[in-house]
Predict the 3D structure of the following.
Amino acid sequence: MSKIIASAAIRGAHKIIGNADKKVKEAIDKFGPNQEVAFPNTAYYLPIIYGMTGRKVEKLSDMEGIIKLCKTLLPPLVKEKHHFPYLGPVLDAGMATFFAEEMYEAIKYIENPKTYVLGEDPSDDNIWLGAADDVIMRKRGVEFVDGTAPGFAAILGGPEDPAVAARIALELQEKNLYVFMGADSNGKKMSEQLKQQGVQIGWPTRLVSFGPEVSSAVFAIGFATRAAMSFGGIDPGDYRKILIYNKDRVFAFAMTFGYVNDEWYANGAGCINWGFPVITDSPTPEILPTGVCTYEHVVSNVPHDQIVQRAVEVRGLKVTVAKVPVPVSYGPAFEGERVRGDDIYLEAGGGRTHAVELVTSSEMDEITDGKVEVIGPDVKDVKPGAKLPLAIYVQVAGRKMQPDFEPILERQIHHLINYAQGAMHIGQRDIAWLRLSKQAVDKGFTMRHIGDILHAKYHQDFGSIFDKVQVTIYTEEKKVDEILKKARAIYKVRDERVAGMTDEDTDPFYSCTLCQSFAPNHVCVVTPERTGLCGAYNWLDCKASFEINPTGPNQPIPKGDTKDALFGTWSGTDDFVMKASRGNVPTVDAYSIMRNPMTSCGCFEAIAAVLPTCNGIMTVDRDTAAMTPSGMKFTTLAGTVGGGNVTPGFLGHSKIYITSKKFMKAEGGLKRLVWMPKSLKEEIKERFEVRAKEIGIPDLLDRIADETVATTEEEVYAYISEKKHPALEMESLF
Amino acid sequence: MAEDKVYSVDKATVQMIEKSRRDGVLTIFDRAEDMKPCPIGSVGSCCKHCSMGPCRVNLSKKDEEAGRTKTGLCGATASTIAARNFIRMIAAGSASHSDHSRDVVEVFISAAKGEIPGYQIADENKLIAMAMDYGVETEGKEIKEIAIALGEKCQLEFGKQTGQLIGLNKAPEKRKEIWRKEGVWPRGIDREVVEIMHRTHIGVDQDFRSLIQQGTRSALADGWCGSMISTDLQDIMFGTPTPVYSEINLGVLRKDMVNVIVNGHEPLLSEMLVVASQDPEMTAYAKTKGAEGVNLTGMCCTGNEILLRHGIPLAGNFLQQELSIITGAVEAMVVDVQCIMQSLQDVSLCYHTKLITTSPKGNIPGATKMYFNEHDALNSAKQIIRVAIDNFQNRKSEVMIPNDRVPMIAGFSQETIDYLLGGMFRASYKPLNENIINGRIRGIAGVVGCNNARTMHDNNHLILIKELIKNDVIVLTTGCSAAACGKAGLLTPEAAREFAGAGLAEVCETVGIPPVLHMGACVDNSRILIAATAVVKEGGLGNDISELPAAGCAPEWMSEKAIAIGQYFVASGVYTIFGTAFPTLGSKEFTDYLFHGIEAQYGGKWDFVEDPLEMARKMIEHIDKARKALGIDKARDRVLFDMEKRRELA
């Protein structure tokens, strides 16, 4: 800490804590000490305070103790001469700053519930998003886990020129980083600047407008703190582990624009506790010696055209940016961007026209690598607002190519097109839907570029399993319908082949330790009948991934001896999990929730939990924010299950696993299911009914309670009793 | 008596020596002129272990070159005699530290039991940490119970006859392996001292190798157990030092106040004197005698103890004790044990100062005996203060207090360093290690030890330390060396900019620390062992203390305690240089072993260098060698992490 920085940060912390103290007192006077206080829909209370101290702030009166703690942490001002050492104290001051600001922001939610917009997108009259709820945190957290987002930039203020703001935001997006924005520099707020520049802000484009004040920095730090608890499985209050986890695994940094005042310094000091360095464009002193952060702590006076690159280096982050020959920006940060209304230049699919995507294997001499053809009109041939039929037909060839890999490659089309700025893609197979924006077309984007993207990215990501890729894009109705017909026949064959695979006649299984970047002890065992709990990786995906990268996170697990067929226990899986969990998990039952259930990273699509009174099991998906009969919301359940811990009675799983024959087979399977959210019922209805018929209870779905009939365990019991749910007749779970 | 000789680099000291001459008072500086050290004894060649001697086995240059040897009457060789003398010094040093420690343990147990008002448990965290180190059950136990159990466990360490001392378990694993292999893990603190006395009796152990092996046992028992217990329990009772602001040098004495100087090594009484001196009742009493109040200051290591814990100003170091009385402003000098000059009584007779001895172990004819009664500690202390106040009106001669009072920041316990480098939430030695690895800090030096009237006061300390910090070596200091640094302004954060190399200065600016860290009294050298161990355990700098880019030095040593300290540092893997004189030079064989052969066993070794710049050069050379061995002598590339690397993190 330079003395100037330390002095300023401690002064800033004094002011911030003073303000928070006042605000808490006023709020208690106005709303009473028992007034509940929380950030929206989170199981982590005020997450920084909860993570660092283990203390839950649930009522205003709980804040008094935290204010007291802040004052204990707050060091005296730095003396001009013969001062005391300040590095430790100033880091404490930074921590106290965050505690104070978190309370300050939480009180704003009581004072005016409309201070911030709920959800992922700003509204027309309010651009400020405030605290991310747990649904966002988990959804986005998965990207941190799998590497699509290596970290975030926490930005204070904004540069003088809005165009520069837009350029820096784009550059950060191109590096796949989230951009968390707060505070203003002399009135300049980056979020507003981006909006002025016509840039889409909100969680989907990773440009997150947290709040207008510097205190909104706590939303960024709270996000990071929750990531450590939910994905890292670190207990609240285990502050050291949470901070080191962030230093080692969350590649975040702070970036400030313009004059750095005392309060900003205090926030910067706070960030350093998390290992997040500060990069600034103003000529402040620097702190270059390493130690608390991985490299430098404060780097200043960085020109705007170098600031992103410098920040990434200072943080010690390596970002591999995909080089794709298209005239627009390309990367995961653009995946969530929408193309709507007047912005649409061209549209295909989505019920308006036919649109289909197909990947097949060919013989080596049948195709030419890199050949991209557009058969039919391209953008230059149509007027803005045009609708075209579309077939994207990809042929791949190579000695290692297997038919099993076709659907995997095909599924990539969705996000690979979406990564292009100005292209919006939804769906897959014969329900694909594509929009191209006017801006993209202005920059020269054409239908041909879709082929170029697929050619380039397939080679980058899957190059080791094939040698040639040829793409044909049809926009003529007749041709499209031909491909559609052919595709539907192929889909049918594929579905039957996959549906026919069983765990019994498959060896090896595959592991997935992709999430060990965030949850170091967690191991997924992926079998044909049990996908990864994230729903993103099935057995075939893992197999392909292994072929592509033989030393990667998906490894074959020879089953070895069957130890217990009912519970799904094999000597091979046990040995593997023991080793890969670093000795933390000695055995796993693949088909049980009660005895040695599989661990979870935190990416689960749904969580099942035992409802003892009902002798059954409920499950809830992560999009459901409401209370469940277990007495816990998804977020709270997630806190119980994640982080690589073995938690009998709770299980993280994918949605597709629900209709697998192996779904909690040890406990009796699907018949145990007594409650799930209505929306989830709808989503999996088709598959569910097939399975229900197989087990001889065709109306099982109706006998299962949902939130419209039961939100407590007693109500579930009443409902399933009335419906004569089979679980009531089954052997006791305990 | 050389009138134009400069005896000290410290202006206040010179000024007071001049006053002593004017006042006709003899001091150690005069006596050093009158009597030279015995050339035979000073190199360890004199054996007086039986009445057939003393035998002198020193050789003339000519004899030595001719390869002649000389033995004592019994046939003891020069190496045996030098080794016996050397390890008897270790025995004396270990005994001094450990006997101090024993008293601390006794007071600690009484305090834990609540039998002695005024003493309590000030640092519960440290109590629990230490209890766990000593295998004392803490789960579900009251603080009082834990403290009593810990105290009793520590007490047993002194008289233990078999097994292994517990304190050494704190060392790095590799170091413990070495001690086991060499068979030097001590059994009991007292037993090792006694065994030295036995082995060095006429006709017992006559092989320098086994003699020094026993010396090592005793030294390790001192450093990792005796000394360490006293440091730790004192911290638990009186508080673990954290940075304090204070001032140093004779200028801290006050003309208008009753000046009480505590001098010696045990803080048990002086802790109470701090309370008593600030008691309003005492201030009021002082005012009745015409003084503004009571000004308590410290001298030597008792002074360092209350400086670190309470910011009490330090009047000076060992060679300034007589001089403080010569100011004519000291009403009472309160002494306990160790390094107290008998001449203080004669000097005090020339002025009005009352020399008060407080330990039954340390008596001086003519001095006022006021033995410290820990069961009535505060009253003991108040009585002493009263005697001092009563003496205020007896000031007779000219009072002359030098103007020198230099600000300093002291109080760097190993726990505090840990905190300062990362705060409550990220406390660790990591920033220190990282900046050693990246070369901003070249290495770590422990510069400790006494003053010695055979060399210019404070001079070696300061030249050495300034040279070290100029070369980016951070300095940990204790005892009289720390005081020397304080007087020269090296213990302020501003000193980094003025004296340190660019790399070290940058780190100091980052943390806000001085380039030289005052870690305590000489008994607190155990703190340096623990700090070094913490650096090893933090990682990135090898697996043992001997692999660290670090070195130790006592450039102006004089006491037997220094030899014990030196030996426990060497046996802990540290390259350790002593200045002024070396007590084994009479035996080339034994000296060669200490300076070279011992390194193969322990990774550390002794050295003797007179010139402070040469000391610095050799320490830096050693540090650079260690850096090279660790592979940190060259700049390293910045490692950028992608997801795959992140996944590899355990």
Notes: Chain A has 21 helices and 23 strands. The domain at 3-315 of chain A is CATH 3.40.50.2030 (Rossmann fold). Chain A touches chain B through 52 residues (CB under 8 Å).
